[in-house]
Each structure stands twice: as C-alpha cells, then as structure tokens.
Structure to design on (136 residues):
C-alpha cells in the first residue's frame, strides 16, 4: 500500500509540473505554496501558461498576479504586457537580485518602486533558460 501511494504521489508531482492554465497565480507559485517542497521542483522542467505582467528588456519577464520571474533565452518579438504566453524552462530557486549592481541594473529597466520590489523579494522559485511563445 505504501509503495503504491508513493508511486501515485510521484506521478502526481510529474503531472503537476506539466499542467498549465490561465490563472491568477502561475502553476509554479501554486506548487511552491503546496506541500511540494521547493527542493523537489528545482532542476525540473516546467511549463507555465499565464499573462505577462512586465517585460524587462531582453533578459526576463514576470507573469501571473504574483509576478513569477522568467529568465528567457530569446524574448519574442512584439511581446507586450497582457499577452498570454507559454514559458517552458528549468525551475531554480534563490535570491534573484542579490548582487550589488542588480538594483542599479533594474533601475535602468524600470521605475524605482518596481526595482525595489524585485530586489526585496524573498527567496523564491523562478524559471531559467525559458523558451517563451505567445499563445494565440
């Protein structure tokens, strides 16, 4: 009985990583706030589907109401906030903007309030090396 439960739990995690859908929170945030530990998510490939909140140059964007950070390999042309996108990348976790020059770099991309918000976030999961496509 225990073996079957563990197998189903593992299958559930794998299935959860592949689920997508337009929601206020991204699937990564939902998993992070569930009983799935961040350590279990790190290194896994995941696909998120949600609206773009903000775009920061060619480097990264945020998506979903909680502004999940997505570092992109190549920003799609003509991408705009509010566009529905699918982002597939590798889950990583940590303090995103902890280097001394990060705040200054963010200030060149956005306003002071947003830069401070991004710098002062807690350690959280995010996507790296993501491929982003606009959902039609």
């Amino acid at each position: 009985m225990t073996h079957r439960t563990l197998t189903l739990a593992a299958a559930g995690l794998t299935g959860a990583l592949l689920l997508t859908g337009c929601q206020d929170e991204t699937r990564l945030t939902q998993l992070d706030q569930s009983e799935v530990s961040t350590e279990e998510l790190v290194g896994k490939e995941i696909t998120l589907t949600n609206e773009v909140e903000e775009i920061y140059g060619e480097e990264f964007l945020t998506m979903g109401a909680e502004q999940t950070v997505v570092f992109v390999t190549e920003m799609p042309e003509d991408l705009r906030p509010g566009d529905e996108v699918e982002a597939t990348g590798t889950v990583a976790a940590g303090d995103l903007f902890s280097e001394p020059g990060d705040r200054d770099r963010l200030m060149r991309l956005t306003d002071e309030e947003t830069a401070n918000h991004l710098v002062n976030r807690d350690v959280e999961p995010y996507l790296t090396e993501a491929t982003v496509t606009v959902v039609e």
About this structure: The radius of gyration is 16 Å. Residues 2-18 form the longest helix (17 residues). Residues 60 and 91 are 14 Å apart (CA to CA). Strands lie at 45-56, 60-63, 68-72, 84-94, 124-134.
